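Ticket opened by: R.M.
Priority: normal
Category: complex prediction / small molecule

The reporter submitted a protein together with cobalt (II) ion and asked that the result be attached to this ticket for the collaborator who will pick it up next week. Submitted input follows.
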Amino acid sequence: MEIDQPLPLLGGLSASQFMRRHWQKKPLLVRQAVPAMVPPIGRRELFELASRDEVESRLIRHGPKGWSLKQGPFARLPSPRQPAWTLLVQGVDLHHQPTHELLGQFRFVPDARLDDLMISYASDGGGVGPHFDSYDVFLLQAQGRRRWSIGRQRDLRLQPGVPLKILSHFEPEETFELEAGDMLYLPPRYAHDGVAIGDDCMTCSIGLRSPAATALGADLLARIAEAEADALHDAVGAAVHYRDPTQPAPSSPAAMPEALQAFARDAVWAALRGADIIERALGESMTEPKPTVWFDPGEAPARFNEVALDRRTRMLYDARHLYINGESFRASGRDARLMQRLADQRSLGPADLARASDDALALLGDWCEAGWIHVD
Ligand code: SIN
Ligand code: CO
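Result attached by the on-call engineer:
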């Protein structure tokens, strides 16, 4: 990643400048971020995705009776000539290669922070109402026009009794009309309201993710507990049990012995102090595929020439491990560097593979069979 080179996608800012000046701090409007923008997906293809069980989609309408929300899949959608409706299709990048490639242009943000690319299709006047999101978002106008009103909004109270999150007292500070190829970046919790102007309005939302401390903590503890249970199962004879040879006779039999409390604290700390235990759990957690994702098993080739990660594969690494689709592997030396290149480039060529060790090739073979990587 060339981090100091000016990018048209960021209006001539480099990735470094963008991260320093705007990321998580203030909005950025970029006119013609993608010059001569062609939508990554057509309307028909998008509607077809919205008819599938494994694709998350929602239909939002706004009329005289207020807001309505329906969850997909949708066998039929309203006519594009009928006003004020929006179809939202989540994770289009998982199902559609050109959309996956568009998301790849946003890798100036760490992969661990990128979530998915959602596409909305709206008829004239369609929108999801004034709201705020907990994550950063890049709103790229793919086709047609949309008017965005945005504001820093202190009052985050929501309208009661509405099936979606709508701000009660939205006070926009600025309004921009976006045409195909224009893009708006918003930091988390920045209030926004996008209304389609005219028909055939398509917007790509490049969504970020940032784990909430409590949910992440709970997930990591569950993973660590599972790893500990496996380790205990393997070494069951050697399990250390509580011993209390100096326990006096209790005058209050129901009182918890303090030594048992100390033993429990030590047991928990010992589980958490294991080498890299939290780092491993984090890597597995952050590469866990979404619940709707599955992989089609493949076949390992006799000889590797080129490999590429499947578009659904999540792969990250740290100094001592590789993480791929919820699993972790220890790696060091040349093999680690090779696999780190695979994660960064999402592919390896013949020159890389010619120097791969037998262990690395065996691992690539397993991942091929799992459908996580492909050879052509
Ligand atoms: C939309 O594309 O209509 C909604 C995107 C958003 O507000 O985050
Ligand atoms: Co939003």
